[in-house]
Design brief:
Residues 441-450 have a biased composition (Basic and acidic residues). The chain is mainly beta and 508 residues long. The protein has 2 helices and 36 strands. It has helices spanning 2-15, 86-89; strands at 39-42, 46-50, 55-56, 61-63, 70-78, 92-94, 98-103, 110-111, 117-118, 120-125, 132-134, 143-155, 158-173, 180-181, 186-190, 201-202, 209-213, 220-222, 229-231, 241-243, 247-251, 257-260, 267-271, 281-285, 298-304, 312-314, 332-336, 346-351, 363-374, 386-393, 406-407, 413-416, 424-425, 455-460, 471-478, 495-507. It is flat and about 95 Å long. The termini are far apart. Residues 1-26 have low confidence and may be disordered.
């Protein structure tokens, strides 16, 4: 019977896209009549994790005699055997099985013994049960750590419990320098003056490091302790010489290295007389949007399909062409809500998360995107049937539903069909604002009518430069439930387009 239950559970798990059940998260006991406390809990150790950074263990295996396990972190110790206090353990959590309800396919609907039509089913998802998570910006510095985990199972009224001491080993190494900032990026070194570059900022990483040059060593030298670069005394030139030096940063703790080079890192112009150099702009995130894939910059969460088509690609905004950097070829994405029965719709376009802390010094940071609404026609009271909203999150790690999202429509500035008009605060109200009855939302403004026009929008990211995991998302949603046909035959949900979403950092 237990094996039959497990088989049914695995089938449900497959229906829920939780992955294959061919490799279980706990070891089966072929004798279903034997129940005892869990045994043989095992984790893969993590070696050389980074200090104070997000850490996630693998899924453990455990012998539970086919019973579903639940997990609890009991304690942690450092390599000297000292018990970790709450300042450490407050950032440590462990995942447990969750119960999930999902819809059956229409062909799988059935009538139960009470005569009710059953259209959903409930299953237990234990794919990540036992996974240990340590939150970012924790207290775990360089060293070794060990954790005690309690595993509990239950069969009818009987509970079985075992505690496994030091079952998970974590080794933490130094945080490497992943962002080295020379400010400004373009600097002039004049021959014979003894002037040098600025001292670089270590935006991230353990500061116990040394610096080396891996290129241009016949022209330049670097101070191994400070990172300051200067011309060699023997260097001479007859014309301006542009250099893009490669700098290696070595951890004195682990001897690991990181390397930096390129025109967005450091450009040096060696000259016989002073030269004025322009400030740089770094387009550090400019996704192509050519397909729904993190490789191309975004993912879709279809919350309520309704009667819509899927998100698809179209030509990019022509309004963005003037500002688009050379070499960028991208698409817009769009969704048509006006199809079929016009059932209510909601979906999210989630952009890849960005680390804004790398531009915390010396940069003005912003996010820019272009949007367009088309064929939106109002409901009888004058309200738009659909709209586009903009949100950000600092804690999104892949689960849209559990992340904390803040709506920022009012923080965005907009320019309709122009790059030269004075920007106004907020997004334009969808639809043709010159027609359509009343204004129940109090947002219509005929001077801000963006119906079937591209709108350039900009968000100031400077208030968010302390966020290491900044995520931007766009939500297209209906302002009605059920079918719009039940409310109005004249109203239309319309279409929404998004194009040229990008983040840029401009030197101050």
């Amino acid at each position: 019977m237990k094996n039959q239950v497990l088989t049914l559970f695995c089938a449900a798990t497959l229906l829920l896209f939780f992955g294959s059940c061919t490799k279980d998260t706990f070891i089966e006991n072929s004798n279903d009549s034997l129940y005892k406390a869990p045994t043989q809990l095992a984790y893969s150790e993590i070696l050389n994790a980074r200090e104070f950074s997000f850490i996630k263990s693998g899924t453990p295996i455990v012998q539970t005699n086919n019973l579903i396990p639940t997990y609890e972190i009991i304690a942690g110790r450092n390599g000297n055997g000292n018990v970790l206090d709450a300042t450490y353990m407050a950032d440590v959590s462990i995942q447990n099985p969750t119960e999930v309800t999902a819809n059956l396919d229409p062909e799988d609907y059935f009538v139960n013994t009470e005569g009710d039509s059953v259209k959903t089913y409930t299953a237990t998802n234990y794919q990540t049960a036992g996974v240990i998570i340590i939150a970012d910006e924790n207290k775990f510095g360089i060293g070794d750590y060990y954790f005690d985990v309690k595993v509990t199972t239950q069969n009818k009224e009987t509970t079985y419990t075992s505690t496994f001491n030091d079952v998970f080993h974590l080794n933490v190494g130094p945080q490497l320098v992943t962002n080295l900032l020379f400010s400004p990026i373009a600097q002039n070194l004049v021959v014979g003056t003894g002037n040098t570059t600025s001292q670089p900022y270590l935006i991230t990483g353990n500061t116990d490091v040394t610096f080396d040059l891996l290129s241009d060593t016949d022209k330049l030298s670097i101070n191994n302790q400070t990172g300051v670069i200067s011309l060699l005394d023997s260097y001479s030139t007859t014309e301006n010489d542009t250099l893009y030096p490669t700098v290696q940063v070595t951890s004195n703790i682990s001897q690991e290295t990181t390397t930096f080079q390129g025109d967005s890192f450091l450009m040096l112009v060696a000259s016989n007389t002073p030269v004025d150099l322009p400030k740089k702009t770094n387009y550090f995130f400019y996704p192509t949007l050519e397909s729904e894939n993190k490789t191309f910059g975004y993912a879709i969460d279809m919350i309520e399909q309704g009667s819509t088509t899927a998100w698809a690609q179209a030509n990019p905004s022509p309004l963005a062409a003037e500002e688009r950097p050379d070499g960028i070829e991208n698409k817009s994405i769009w969704i048509n809500v006006t199809v079929g029965d016009r059932l209510a719709h909601e979906s999210d376009v989630i952009l890849n998360s960005q680390d804004l802390t790398q531009f915390s010094l010396g940069f003005d940071v912003s996010a820019i995107f272009h949007i367009k609404n088309q064929y939106v026609e109002y409901m009888p009271d004058g309200k738009t049937p659909t709209e586009l909203e903009v949100y950000y999150s600092a804690d999104y790690t892949g689960n849209n539903a559990t992340a904390t999202w803040t709506k920022i429509n009012d923080e965005v500035t907009s320019q309709i069909n122009s790059l030269t008009t004075t920007p106004f605060a907020g997004l334009p109200y969808p639809g043709d604002q010159k027609i359509g009855g009343g204004d129940p939302d109090g947002q219509k403004d005929a001077t801000k009518n963006a119906d079937n026009k591209w709108t350039r929008c900009e968000l100031d990211l400077n208030p968010y430069k302390d966020i290491k995991n900044f995520t931007l998302k766009f939500k297209v949603k209906s302002n009605y439930t059920g079918s719009l046909n039940d409310i109005s035959t004249a109203a239309r949900p319309g279409r929404y387009y998004i194009s040229d979403v990008h983040f840029k950092a401009s030197e101050e």
